[in-house]
Amino acid sequence: MKLGPIARAATVIAWPALLFLGGWPSAMAQDRVSGHVSAGWRGVWQSGSDAKYDQHVDLDDGVRLFDFAFSYLPEAQDGPWLPDRVDLQASNLGGDPYDSMRLDVQKYGAYRFTYQRQSSDYFYDDSALGSEFPDADGNFRRFDFERDTDRAKLELDLSDRARLFVGYDRYEKSGKSLTVLDVEREEFELNKPIDETFQSFEFGLSYAWDRVNLTWTERYRDFDDDSSISLSEFSLGSEPAEPTELDFFFLDLPYQYDGWEHQLAVNARPLDRLTLTANVIIGDLDADLKARERSQGVDFLGRPFARDISGTGGIDQDRDLYDVSVAYDVSEAISVFGRYRWHELKQSGDSQFEQDAVSRWD
After folding, report:
1. Three-state DSSP class for residue 208
2. Alpha carbon 95 to chain centroid, angstroms
3. What are phi and psi of 355, to 5 degrees?
4. pLDDT digit string (tens) for 289-309?
5. pLDDT at 352
């Protein structure tokens, strides 16, 4: 694996873009616009295992936007809601395994809006044996998926003391993987698609007195995982000499949960040397579980089998968190502090399979 030429190619070819655009901020200073761009073409020369290269480096040929920043500060405003400042930043766009973008729009004394997006690729394949890695034991689990995170938040200044805010977060994970599952005392390589989505919505109000700041937040969270494991064709497993065989195997395990979270935070400084903070969080969660297995083959005793098993389940959860701390500044160099934290978790659940087996727990 030749990593030296990769670094040199990316650096040398990106320099012309930096030099060409270096005068942009000074040329447009009268319009209060500034920024920079770093772009170029990357060439990759690699030898050896493609899987190991993708697992540890995963950089490809092509045109890339390595770094971008743009700031706009208008001198005059034609409306009460037009922004005073706009900032846009981006890095590693064009196909790299890690890229990001951030947008900030602000009107001083009125509002602030922020949007962030981060993406990453993950690849793992350690199953190569034989000529490439003759001494390896082999790990038959493989992963190839993407992760995308979006965050947006809007803050509105209702007055000099009051601030209203709303926010939205989303995390999505999608791709494919290969896992190993024990079926009838034999290990089989099975496909396991990845499809997960997490969302969080929040809104709240913050109010500041002279020595006390209070923030109330309501938050709703939702998570979905469309989990499944499958083998769509005949397989002898990891030990072909053993009697266990699978004609097909499908295991569906989707689950979902949602819940609310209520939060109250207080930060007070009744004396110049004394600081008090308190945080209260009360939340609940409701999870729904489903499962169904459909399989057919020959078991470890050489007997044919066919299964179609399904079931459902659920979990209810309640959480209470109380956190209080006190800090006193004895001097500029010495502070004395204490903290009390109390956390209670209560949950109960049940599951049922084929209408004849039921379990409940608290």
Report:
1. strand
2. 19
3. 65, 0
4. 999 999 999 988 899 989 888
5. 83
* pLDDT (mean) for 92-109: 90
Give the number of other Cβ atoms within 10 Å of residue 246's Cβ. 21
* C-beta separation of 255 from 287 below 8 A: yes
Please give the full DSSP string across 258-325, using - where no structure is assigned: EEEEEEEEEEEEEETTEEEEEEEEEEEEEEEEEEEEEEEEE-TTS-EEEEEEEEEEEEEEEEEEEEEE
As a whole number of angstroms, the distance between CA 235 and CA 12 comes to 51
Contact (Cβ atoms closer than 8 angstroms) between residue 14 and residue 43: no
**Distance in angstroms (rounded) separating the CA atoms of residues 49 and 60:** 15
Is the whole-model pTM more than 0.90?
Answer: no
Residues 317 and 273 sit within 8 Å (Cβ to Cβ): no
Does the pLDDT of residue 274 top 80, yes or no? Answer: yes
First to last CA, the chain: 54
- Tell me how far apart the alpha carbons of residues 247 and 245 are, in angstroms, rounded to a whole number: 7
Q: Is pLDDT of 8 > 50?
A: no
- CB atoms under 10 Å from CB of 196, counted, come to 16
Number of helices and strands (H, E) in the chain?
A: 3, 17
Q: How many residues does the chain have?
A: 362
Residues 6+ apart with CB under 8 A from 186: 237, 238, 239, 242, 244, 300
Angle, CA 115 vertex, CA 110 and CA 119 arms, to 5°: 170
Report helix, strand and coil shares of the chain as percent, to nearest 5: 10, 65, 25
